[in-house]
Amino acid sequence: MILLSIKPVSGAILISTAVIVGLIIIYNFWVMWIASKNIFPGAGAPISMAQTVLNSIQATSQFLFGIFIVAVLLVLIIEEIVTAEVGIPVITSVVGFLLGRTQKKSNDA
């Protein structure tokens, strides 16, 4: 019954977050499926391929967890359960971590 008493903006944030997370998960599985079809014997060391897959899964899960934290905090701020003085620093910390992680990955490539 809690979901019935939330503001429409909060519901929109939750629904759009669920759609974004679902699309990212589907895209990740699709990319892994394409990669598995294109790997042929002698293409490289299996250990390096496994490490690449693990790095991809780790980066994606951290990104999805960050999106989830930001969405939950936004809903809590909108519903006035958490004040903006508390929520906004946490949101900026999470977004800063996600952006720093993305920049680090792009510099490594």
How would you characterize this protein structure?
- It is a single chain.
- This protein is an all-alpha fold and 109 residues long.
- It has one domain (3-108).
- 82% of the residues lie in helices and 0% in strands.
- It contains 3 helices and no strands.
- Helix 1 runs antiparallel to helix 2 and helix 2 packs antiparallel against helix 3 (84-108).
- The termini are far apart.
- The model has no long low-confidence stretch (mean pLDDT 77).
Q: Which value, in Å, is the CA radius of gyration?
A: 18 Å
> Please, what is the oligomeric state?
single chain
Ends apart, CA distance between termini? 48 Å
Give average pLDDT, whole number: 77
Number of domains: 1
Outline type: elongated
Low-pLDDT windows of residues: none
From the structure above, extract its key features.
3 helices; 0% strand; 109 residues; mainly alpha
